[in-house]
Design goal:
Blueprint lengths: L1 H20 L2 H4 L5 H6 L4 E3 L7 H16 L4 E5 L16 H12 L6 E6 L2 E5 L6 H7 L7 H19 L44 H28 L11 E2 L8 E2 L10 H30 L10 H8 L7 E2 L8 E3 L5 E3 L7 E7 L7 H14 L7 E7 L7 H10 L7 E3 L3 H10 L4 E3 L4 E3 L2 E5 L5 E6 L7 H15 L24 E4 L5 E4 L5 E6 L9 H18 L4 E5 L9 H7 L9 E3 L4 H5 L7 E5 L5 E6 H4 L4 H18 L1
Parallel strand pairs: 1-2, 2-3, 10-11, 11-12, 19-20, 20-21
Antiparallel strand pairs: 3-4, 5-6, 7-16, 8-9, 10-15, 13-14, 15-16, 17-18, 19-22, 22-23
C-alpha cells in the first residue's frame, strides 16, 4: 500500500511540475531579445511592434533572397525601448546597439547585421570596416510608425546590397527562413510572430487569458492530487486484527488497556498518507500560485511602479541615459596611468569607483564624459574623497603614456583621475571583460561611451552611456553622483538639485545672444545667413586649432568683400577645463581674430545647431535652417577658397529648393 500511495503522490508532483513548465516563458529573464532570436533567424521584430505578419513575411523574403544572392544580412527592427529587453540604455543609439548585438552574435553569426530604430540605422560586420555602410545609410531616412520602420529596413538592405554590386529580387510568397534553413509560414494561431512562425521575442508580460489559464491549471492540479489521495484511502485494505484474548497496547493515557479492539478503532496509517499527500499537493499549489503571482507582479509589461517627477523626467529625456543596473564582481585589471605608474582596480577597494572608457584623441562624446565625471565628484562635496575616477583608453591607435597624459592635461584632469593605458592586447582584454566594443574605420575610432559605477566592495552597480548632448552633461554628473552616494556609507547628500527634464536646444531659427569672450554679447539667429565654428580649446590635442582659427581671418575678409555669410566662433564653455582656458588660448594667438567669439555656457546652442563634435562648421540660412555642416576631425580643415566655394554651393542649393 505504501508504494502505491507513493506512486500516486509522485504523480501529483509530476503533474504539478508540468503545470510549472507553463510558467517558463514568464520566468525567463531576457537580457537582449534580439540576440536570442537572431542566433537562428534572419529577422527580429518584437511581438508588440504593431508590424503586421504580412509585412514581416515580406521583409523576411527579402532577407532570404539577399542570402541566396550572396548578401547575407540579418535585421533587428527596434520599434520601442522595450524591444531592447534589459539594455534599454541603447535606445535610440542604433550604431552602438548594432555593435553590441554584433558582438553578442559573433560566436554564432559574424556576417552583416542591420539595426533599424525610429531615429536611424546601425550596422555591424565583425572584422570589417563599417564606414562604407554608414555612408550609404547616412543618405537614408526612417519614416514614422511601423510601416516606416519596415520600409526603411527594406530600402537599407537593397541599398547596402547595391553598394556591393548585388541586386536583390525578393521571391513572391514564402517566409523568412531560420538561420539553418526554411521554416513554415506562421499559422493562424501564431499571433504577432516573426516570419517562419518563430516568436520574435518573449513578450514583455503575460496576457490576462494566459494568467487565468495558469491559475486554473494550478487549482486543477491541487484538486486532482486530493482526489487521487482520497481514492488511495478508500481503496487501501484495512488490516483488521483477529479478535482474541484481551491484550495490552503500549499507549499512554487512558487507553493503556483494552479488552477488545474494534475495527473502527484501529489506527489508520492511510490517514497519515492522506494528510501527507494533501500537504504535498498544497505545497506544490502554493509554489505554483506564488510563481504565477511573481510573474504577474514583476513582468515588465504588467508592472506599474510608482511614477515620480524625477523618474518621469528621466524617461522623457532622450539626451540622458537613466542607467542600467548591474550585478556581479567588477572584472579586475592592472594597467598604466598617465604618470607611468601601475594601477590595479583592486587598489581602490573601499572607495566607490566611476570607470569610463575614453578615447585619448576623442573630440566628440568623450569630453562630455570626463566633464560629467568631474561634476559628479564635485557634487558630492567632502564625500568626493571616497570616490575614485578612472578612465581606460579606448583608442588602439593612441595607447602611449604621453597620449593619456596629454588628454588629461588639456581637459584639466591630470590630478582628477587615473587615466589608464597599456598594450593593445592588455586594453583589448579589459574591453572584452566589460563588453565595450571598439571598432576602427579608416578615419575614426568608435566605442561605446560606457561609464561603470562600482561599489566600495568591488561590485558592479550601474552602467551609463553618455549621450551626444552638451546640455545634458551636468545632469549626467548629478545622476552619477546620486548613484555613488547610494553606495557610500551614510549616503551623503548630493549638492546639486538639477531637473532631469530635457533642456531644449536653441536652434538657428531662434534669435539669441551669447556672452562674448572679450565682453559684450554676440547675436545669433535668423535674419541673415551666418557661418559658425563651434570649438573647444582642448581641440589643440588633435588639430592645429590656433593656426586654423587665425587662417579664418581670410574668410572673414572675403565674406565682407563678396557678401558671404559672416563668421562667428562659439566656444563650448560648459566642457572647458576651467574659466581661464578660453582667455588663455585667445591670448596666446599670434594675431587677433577678426570675427567674434561667443561662449555657449550650457551647450543648448550646440545641441540646437546639431553639433556632433568639435571643431564643427555649421551654415545657417536667413530663415534659420542649417544647410551645411562639417566635422573637422573627420573631413579636415577647408582652405579659404574651398570654404567659400562650399558655402556658396550650399546657399545656392537651399535657395533652389525654396
Amino acid at each position: 500500500m505504501t508504494s502505491s500511495c507513493l506512486r500516486r503522490a509522485l504523480l501529483v508532483v509530476v503533474l504539478a511540475l508540468a503545470a510549472l513548465g507553463l510558467l517558463s516563458p514568464a520566468a525567463r529573464a531576457d537580457g537582449d531579445p534580439g540576440s536570442d532570436v537572431l542566433v537562428y533567424q534572419n529577422l527580429f521584430v518584437a511581438a508588440d511592434s504593431n508590424i503586421s505578419i504580412p509585412q514581416q513575411v515580406e521583409l523576411g523574403n527579402l532577407l532570404t533572397a539577399a542570402g541566396k544572392d550572396g548578401f547575407p544580412v540579418r535585421v533587428a527592427v527596434i520599434a520601442t525601448r522595450d524591444d531592447l529587453g534589459a539594455i534599454t540604455a541603447l535606445w535610440k543609439q542604433p550604431a552602438s546597439y548594432a555593435h553590441f548585438l554584433g558582438v553578442e552574435l559573433s560566436l554564432a553569426y559574424a556576417q552583416r547585421l542591420l539595426v533599424v530604430m525610429p531615429n536611424g540605422f546601425g550596422f555591424s560586420w565583425q572584422g570589417h570596416s563599417t564606414t562604407g555602410a554608414y555612408q550609404v545609410l547616412g543618405k537614408l531616412s526612417v519614416g514614422s510608425g511601423p510601416n516606416g520602420l519596415v520600409t526603411a529596413a527594406e530600402t537599407a538592405v537593397r541599398s547596402l546590397a547595391a553598394a556591393s554590386g548585388i541586386q536583390i529580387t525578393a521571391p513572391a510568397g514564402g517566409s523568412a527562413a531560420p538561420a539553418g534553413g526554411s521554416a513554415p509560414p506562421a499559422g493562424p494561431g501564431a499571433g504577432a510572430a516573426s516570419p517562419g512562425g518563430q516568436p520574435a521575442a518573449a513578450p514583455s508580460g503575460l496576457p490576462a487569458p494566459l494568467i487565468a489559464a495558469i491559475v486554473a491549471g494550478a487549482l486543477v492540479v491541487i484538486a486532482l492530487g486530493g482526489w487521487l489521495a482520497r481514492r488511495a484511502v478508500l481503496r487501501s485494505p484495512r488490516r483488521v486484527p483477529a479478535l482474541g484474548p484481551p491484550r495490552k497496547l503500549g499507549w499512554p493515557g487512558k487507553l493503556g488497556s483494552l479488552s477488545r479492539l474494534r475495527p473502527s478503532a484501529w489506527p489508520r496509517p492511510s490517514r497519515r498518507v492522506l494528510s501527507g499527500t494533501w500537504m504535498a499537493g498544497g505545497f506544490v499549489g502554493v509554489v505554483v500560485a506564488g510563481i504565477v503571482l511573481h510573474s504577474v507582479v514583476t513582468s515588465p509589461g504588467n508592472a506599474t511602479p510608482a511614477s515620480t517627477p524625477v523618474s518621469s523626467a528621466l524617461a522623457a529625456n532622450d539626451n540622458l541615459d537613466p542607467g542600467a543596473p548591474l550585478t556581479g564582481d567588477a572584472p579586475g585589471f592592472t594597467l598604466t596611468d598617465q604618470f607611468g605608474q601601475q594601477v590595479s582596480l583592486s587598489a581602490f577597494r573601499g572607495k566607490a569607483v566611476v570607470l569610463a572608457f575614453n578615447d585619448a584623441e576623442c573630440t566628440t562624446i568623450c569630453p562630455l564624459t570626463t566633464a560629467a565625471l568631474v561634476d559628479a565628484k564635485a557634487m558630492l562635496g567632502k564625500a568626493g574623497s571616497q570616490v575614485q575616477l578612472l578612465g581606460i583608453d579606448a583608442n588602439p591607435k593612441a595607447t602611449s603614456v604621453e597620449d593619456v597624459l596629454s588628454y588629461s592635461q588639456l581637459h584639466g584632469m591630470t590630478y582628477e583621475w587615473r587615466y589608464l593605458t597599456g598594450s593593445v592586447a592588455q586594453l583589448q582584454s579589459v574591453w572584452k571583460a566589460y563588453s565595450v566594443g571598439v571598432t576602427i574605420s579608416q578615419s575614426t575610432i568608435d566605442h561605446e561611451p560606457a561609464i561603470f559605477v562600482i561599489s566600495p566592495q568591488g561590485k558592479l552597480a550601474r552602467l551609463y552611456l553618455t549621450q551626444m548632448a552638451y546640455s545634458a552633461v551636468p545632469q549626467l554628473g548629478q545622476l552619477l553622483a546620486s548613484e555613488v552616494a547610494s553606495l557610500l556609507p551614510g549616503h551623503p547628500a548630493v549638492q546639486s538639485h538639477l531637473s532631469y527634464a530635457e533642456a531644449a536646444g536653441i536652434t538657428p531659427a531662434t534669435g539669441t545672444s551669447l556672452p562674448g569672450a572679450e565682453g559684450g554679447y554676440v547675436s545669433l539667429g535668423p535674419g541673415q545667413p551666418r557661418l559658425y565654428l563651434f570649438f573647444a580649446t582642448w581641440d589643440q590635442e588633435v588639430t592645429t586649432l590656433a593656426g586654423q582659427m587665425e587662417a579664418l581671418n581670410a574668410y572673414q575678409a572675403a565674406a565682407s568683400r563678396s557678401g558671404l555669410p559672416p563668421l562667428a566662433a562659439i566656444d563650448e564653455g560648459g566642457i572647458e577645463p576651467s574659466a581661464t582656458a578660453l582667455p588663455g588660448f585667445l591670448a596666446g594667438l599670434g594675431q587677433p581674430l577678426s570675427y567674434p567669439v561667443a561662449i555657449d555656457g550650457d551647450g543648448r546652442v550646440a545641441d540646437g545647431y546639431g553639433v556632433q563634435g568639435v571643431p564643427w562648421f555649421a551654415l545657417a540660412t536667413a530663415t534659420g535652417k542649417v544647410v551645411w555642416s562639417r566635422e573637422v576631425t573627420v573631413s579636415g580643415w577647408p582652405s579659404t577658397a574651398s570654404l567659400e566655394q562650399q558655402v556658396r554651393a550650399a546657399l545656392a542649393s537651399a535657395s533652389a529648393k525654396n
